[in-house]
Write a structure and sequence with these properties.
The chain is built from 17 helices and 17 strands. Helix 11 crosses helix 15.
Length: about 425
């Protein structure tokens, strides 16, 4: 059986691994490698099986179709060929996109989205032993193996805390401690580390439910978690269903500005995107303008309200209702604050809007830039970050006068828990 190797959008790591372990293939009688540029075999030749590594871009489509016509079987080798994986990240994140477009590379997709694939060899890099098993099966005339193998062991379930708003999966956690530090920075201490040595995990004190442990639901732990071991509730599917029914959007100006900065477009173009997705109306608001001007401590969200009651219970009597966005039925809220998910569903964050924009396949640069009304001026004082908020609450408890808006996230709402992750790591 003659085997030909082809490489497209990938690092070629899977094929290098095959070359490094070539003895496993060379030792198999009846299997002959007739094409592999890494071995100096690159001339056009006849073959029975095409082993394709890498994701496929628009520039590669015709070549891949010709490979399919010549081959009796096509095997997708590695994660990039099977899922798109690493080689598609440049497109998903918008990195060097102009360079890719200039060279003719667009929309990298898995091999099976372009041609029929008979069998897969998964992994990054792929297992040479599994590739040998697949090729031996084909050479022996057995049907192609199309389904993943079952692991020979099962891992005992790790601790998972999930209250429907916030989810902690310790099986994904790398115990970097970032979430614990953030929680301590706010003086909340709803997250801690338990056990010792290799068994150490991040959890709540005594593994209590989040709210019982004192969580204020600010969402910062999920925003800064590098491996999604902590995640907040996603309302993206609900928002898309509402778009199909022609619902409306109430969007914070700050959320649109943050998402636009992350995507490299203008805020007005995101308004056009929301209408392109099916929403009949998009209302842009500034939550600061909605804050009451009466005297008192004004929490910017339910997180600040809980924070004051937890840290300064003696000042709770000065609290006014937290700022809410007026959103009725058939309305989705777009916000920079995860805590607003408590007020309304569906609510999507600026980060979720960025992801929605990327996966919508809409060319944002071609959308019209809808004008936004000038942001209204707010005369209320704003305390930004845990230190300023602590000082403001203590000062107000001694001399209650005027109105003070509390934004407890470090850096305020511009670095809130709902901001795009790229901005949080850059700023």
């Amino acid at each position: 059986m003659k085997v030909a190797f082809f490489g497209f959008g990938s690092c070629e790591g899977c094929r290098y691994r095959v070359v490094n372990e070539l003895h496993k293939l060379a030792g198999e009688s009846g299997i002959e490698i007739v094409r592999e540029p890494l071995l100096g075999l690159s001339a056009d030749t006849e073959y029975d099986v095409a082993v394709v590594e890498g994701a496929i871009t628009t520039r590669d489509v015709e070549e891949v179709k010709k490979i399919r016509e010549k081959a009796k079987f096509v095997v997708a080798l590695g994660s990039c060929a099977l899922l798109g994986e690493t080689s598609t990240l440049g497109y998903k994140l918008g990195l060097r996109i102009e360079e890719y477009v200039k060279d003719g590379y667009m929309d990298a997709v898995p091999v099976h989205q372009v041609i029929k694939v008979d069998s897969y060899v998964r992994g990054c890099p792929a297992s040479v032993d599994e590739l040998v098993r697949v090729l031996k099966a084909l050479a022996a005339g057995f049907p192609p193996l199309r389904y993943e193998r079952r692991f020979e062991y099962e891992k005992v379930a790790d601790l998972v805390l999930d209250d429907g708003f916030l989810k902690l999966d310790t099986g994904k956690c790398i115990v970097c401690g970032r979430c614990v530090d953030l929680c301590a920075l706010l003086g909340v201490h709803a997250l801690t580390q338990a056990y010792r040595g290799y068994r150490v995990i991040v959890t709540t004190p005594a593994q209590l439910p989040f709210l019982e442990a004192g969580c204020i639901r600010c969402g910062l732990c999920a925003a800064y978690c590098p491996v999604s071991a902590l995640k907040y509730r996603s309302d993206v599917e609900g928002a898309l269903e509402l778009a199909k029914r022609g619902g409306r959007v109430v969007a914070e100006r700050l959320a649109l500005e943050a998402a636009a900065e992350a995507l490299g477009v203008r805020p007005g173009q995101l308004v056009s995107l929301l209408k392109e997705l099916g929403f009949r109306e998009v209302e842009v608001v500034d939550p600061l303008a909605l804050a009451p001007s009466e005297e008192g401590l004004i929490p910017f969200s339910s997180a600040e309200e809980r924070w004051v009651k937890l840290r300064f219970p003696e000042a709770a009597r000065f609290l006014k209702p937290h700022v809410k966005l007026a959103a009725g039925k058939e309305t989705v809220v777009v916000t920079a604050c995860v805590a607003r998910k408590e007020d309304h569903a569906p609510t999507i964050t600026a980060h979720e809007l960025v992801e929605l924009a990327k996966w919508s396949r809409v060319v944002l640069e071609d959308l019209p830039d809808e004008p936004l009304r000038a942001a209204p001026e707010s005369k209320v004082k704003v305390a930004v970050g845990p230190e300023e908020c602590s000082a403001a609450v203590e000062s107000y408890a001694k001399n209650p006068s005027g109105a003070v808006v509390l934004q407890v996230c470090p850096g305020g709402c511009s670095r809130g828990s709902g901001a795009p992750y790229r901005l949080l790591t850059q700023r």
